Amino acid sequence: MATVPQKSNFVPAASLDQRPAADRERAPIPTPRSAPTPTNLIRQLVRNSPFVAKNFRLYFQNAWRRHVRGTKVVAPYAVTFYVTHKCNLACSYCTQKEPDVFSEELPTAATIRILKKIRKETDSIVITGGEPTLRPDIEDLVAAARQEIKFRSLLLITNGTLLDRKPRILQHVTGLIVSLDALSADPTNPLSKPAALPKVLENLQFAAGVLGPRRITISTVIEEWNISEVERLLDWCGERGYVFAAQSAQLEKMPNLQLLRNPQYHALVDKIIERRRANQQPINGTPHTIETLLRFKTFECYPTMFPRVYPNGDVFYPCEPLHTIAGNLLRDGSLRKIFARGKKTYGDIPPCQGVCYLFGNVLSHYYVNDFWALAGEFIR
């Protein structure tokens, strides 16, 4: 089986944490807040009963797989579907720059057949790319996914530059994830995307008028150059009611451990965690998942919980970074069959030391290994 390449900078993250030991070990002091009343908690559970039922069903299903069948191949929670590899920007951290595994886009009808196959095994889908709004039929695809195929949750990840040209998207998605790494357009720094930023901000205002800000997540990638900008974005999201989400840039699939030498980075992470713990503003994740994600703590990945499907229906096993494709949804019919074939061909999920610090990977660790604590943090 393919193995994760070892990089010279891949060392235990704790060894690069240069803060004093007392600071590293001292637990943050929780901000006092009132717990939900039993009546409000029951109301929330009833209001979100399909979501609650799904989580408990998957918890017991995956507990059976892990502890009785002894496999790390868990059931899918949500599928990430790449509808295209094309993009109109060139972000430095983009993972879609490896054409050796790219696949062709299929016509609308065939793509809808892929969506129907996915829906048989999960009610949650994340549509991404490339830039999905570059597909001429993206409005028809999201309309079919919600109205015909009945996905309960449909998130679309976009750079936001073309939303005004595809307004019907906003009628059908349950949430929008917009990539934004800076609020200042610096003509001398192409990483700040000075040509695109004004249009993205304009389209964000347009989308918020349709969806409301709480259904829009601003997803930012932290690099050395934009730590101050990310702090501004955190405040800006809080002022406008957007959900804030952050992760660090990956260097050839590896975390940039040099960030742990930067006191400004640690101060930013502390600020994000403290605001999430105090529920001061909507922030994606829980204090524990954010700590693991942004400080590169050890975690165990369960990639089949958030499987990735390419435009032609190809499914990766165990994960996209290893470039191993185990089957195709149109040919094989189901993720379950493809995962079974993948396990037979490539073996069980490898112990890769959790090198891909992406939110879904970290979430899968807590979902499988610490479900009740994760649920408690979300409720609080």
Tell how many strands the DSSP assignment holds.
11
- From the spread of the alpha carbons, the general shape counts as globular
Distance separating the two termini: 42 Å
β-strand percent reads 5-15%
Structural class: alpha/beta
Helix proportion of residues, in percent?
Answer: 25-40%
Oligomer: single chain
Unreliable runs, pLDDT <50, ≥5 residues?
1-33
Strand order across the largest sheet: 6-5-4-3-2-1-9
In round numbers, the mean pLDDT is 87
Q: Largest sheet, described in full?
A: 7 strands, parallel
Please state the CA-atom Rg, rounded to the nearest Å.
Answer: 20 Å
Tally of helical runs: 13
SSE order, one letter for each helix or strand: HHHEHEHEEHEHEEEHHEEEHHHH
Summarize the structure.
The chain has 13 helices and 11 strands. It is of the alpha/beta class and 380 residues long. The chain has a domain at 180-299.
Walk me through this protein's architecture.
The chain contains 13 helices and eleven strands. It has 380 residues and is of the alpha/beta class. The protein is globular, with a radius of gyration of 20 Å. The model is unreliable at 1-33 (pLDDT under 50).
